[in-house]
Specification:
Elements: H1 2-26, E1 28-35, H2 43-55, E2 60-67, H3 72-82, E3 91-95, H4 101-106, H5 114-118, H6 123-128, H7 131-139, E4 151-156, H8 157-161, H9 166-171, H10 175-187, E5 192-195, H11 200-203, E6 217-219, E7 225-227, H12 232-247, H13 259-267, E8 271-277, H14 280-293, E9 299-302, E10 314-316, E11 323-327, H15 334-343, H16 347-355, E12 362-364, E13 370-372, E14 399-401, H17 407-419, E15 420-422, H18 430-452, H19 460-482
Parallel strand pairs: 1-2, 1-3, 5-8, 10-15, 13-14
Antiparallel strand pairs: 3-11, 4-8, 4-9, 6-7, 12-13
Helix pairs in contact: 12-18, 14-17, 18-19
């Protein structure tokens, strides 16, 4: 009898071990590539996220693979294009123009998430309620990223408030009042009212709309389309920027400064403002400005320029966002990988993403709100969706203590939400890609030379003709077939 009992117990223990082994085997490990360099400081977030995924019922564990920011686009492209299948990560964070998910997806290197998004539990609500996110995803269904981030004009508040014309500008931010405000800023002794990094930032920060450019492709009466950068509207805008350069309002080195030099011009008080991305980026720029110049130098966001017809807008690109999450076609379980991305849209996961770790990054108030111990940019939280579309989470309403973002960051996001208009740009087909790159380079070169005075109105028609000959006319004809 004892032998039978011993045998039964042994069998039960063996079955228990086998069951445990099977349970472990049911958990799939997905390799996730992130752009962090050393990920040690994010270990608490990594562990918390894996615990949250397990608690949600997803049988998955994320194995984090980190790479430094330097050389990241080349590393990602190399991994997807050239690495053996077993070395390709399942989930990859992409960032920068050098990584094109649409092109990589067309080469069957990335998973088309259209059907997955349509059947998703959480992400679908975000996208269904937001035409910008819908348009971005439709143009590139290989990428998930909940953001409206757009370029905005951001200036030192102390400099703006010292301008007598600021009140008139706030009441009517048209081209004339923008010019008057810039002139007053220069008169305060700054090297320029503003500077940028890249000539296209001058136009895409809310100024285009002031000259009637309400889309990348402007529809003509006959149903054809003209690319905005070779339109007469743009010619008028260039004239306005040329005047700003001559007056000294636009910094003399706007065309040559790199990122660091541009940012330091603001931080060190050489310029009063910059035209750059807002939301979390505004928080970053304000922190650097206030650190060197005091609280009075916190940033204010200027509204988009008002056109003669009274229109104000930011064109929100829809061809794709310049960062986000993709799933490789070599992924061992693409649906599970998407389920991870989907779960991160849930309220519970969003709160981890936004606020971090309890007692490390925040404490809970008695009413259930979050008492933030440090601002968002000072946490050791790795945010999967470090973006500005918060969904059901009203960040300002449910937080106390340290501000998640400074006020300028929230205002920039609010302005883009208020004035943002879904653009009609589109992914350029592969057969036009090379010629389109030449067309883009040409207009940027001409715009820079015109503002600097190296080109004049006498050169405009030749520029447009050359742009068309480079392939622009073909793409314009194609635009008429795809823009709805």
């Amino acid at each position: 009898m004892k032998k039978l009992l011993s045998l039964a117990l042994a069998l039960m223990m063996l079955l228990s071990l086998v069951s445990g082994a099977l349970a472990d085997d049911e958990v799939t490990t997905l390799r996730i590539l992130v752009r962090t360099g050393d990920a040690t400081k994010y270990q608490a977030t990594i562990d918390a996220l894996n615990d949250l995924l397990a608690a949600s019922g997803l049988k998955v564990k994320l194995e984090w693979i980190s790479h430094a920011s330097s050389g990241y686009p080349d590393y990602v492209n190399g991994m997807l294009l050239d690495s053996p299948e077993e070395e390709v990560c399942d989930l990859l964070y992409v960032q920068g123009a050098a990584i094109n998910p649409a092109t990589l997806g067309a080469q069957d290197l990335l998973v088309d998430m259209t059907d997955m998004l349509a059947a998703s539990k959480y992400a679908k609500a975000f996208y269904d309620a937001d035409e910008v996110l819908q348009a971005q995803f439709n143009s590139c269904p290989y990428l998930i990223w909940p953001s409206h981030v757009n370029k905005v004009m951001q200036f030192r508040t102390d400099a703006l408030e010292a301008c007598a014309s600021y009140a008139a500008f706030q009441a009517e931010p048209n081209a004339a009042n923008y010019a008057a405000l810039f002139d007053e800023l220069v008169a305060q002794g700054y090297e320029g009212a503003l500077t940028v990094q890249g000539v296209d930032y001058l136009f895409d920060c809310g100024i285009d709309g002031g000259f009637g450019i309400n889309a990348t492709w402007l529809r003509q009466e006959d149903g054809s389309y003209v690319y905005s950068r070779v339109s007469e509207n743009f010619h008028e805008e260039l004239k306005w920027w040329r005047e700003r350069y001559v007056s000294g309002a636009l910094h003399k080195n706007f065309a040559t400064d790199d990122w660091e030099t541009m940012e330091n011009a603001l931080y060190n008080g050489r310029v009063a403002g910059i035209a750059m991305k807002g939301a979390a980026y505004s928080a970053y720029y304000e922190n650097g400005t206030v650190k060197n110049n005091g609280e009075a130098a916190r940033l204010s966001i200027l509204p988009p320029m008002k056109s003669v017809s009274g229109e104000q807008l930011y064109k929100i690109p829809t061809d794709r966002f310049d960062r986000g999450w993709v799933i490789s076609t070599t992924c061992k379980d693409p649906q599970l990988a998407f389920d991870v991305l989907d779960f991160l849209f849930s309220d519970e996961a969003r709160k981890l993403d936004l606020f971090g770790i309890k007692d490390q990054d925040y404490t809970l108030n008695e009413d259930g709100t979050y008492n933030l111990l440090v601002p968002s940019d000072e946490t050791n939280t790795y945010r999967i969706y470090d973006a500005d579309v918060f969904g059901n989470i009203d960040v300002k309403a449910i937080t106390t203590g340290a501000a998640y973002w400074p006020e300028c960051a929230f205002i920039s996001a609010d302005l883009v939400a208020q004035y943002g208009k879904v653009d009609n740009n589109f992914v350029i087909p592969e057969e036009y890609a090379t010629s389109w790159t030449a067309c883009e380079s040409l207009w940027k070169e001409f715009a820079t030379q015109y503002i600097l005075g190296e080109k004049t109105d006498a050169d405009w028609d030749a520029f447009v003709s050359t742009w068309n000959s480079y392939g622009g006319a073909q793409v314009a004809a194609y635009a008429a077939t795809v823009i709805k």
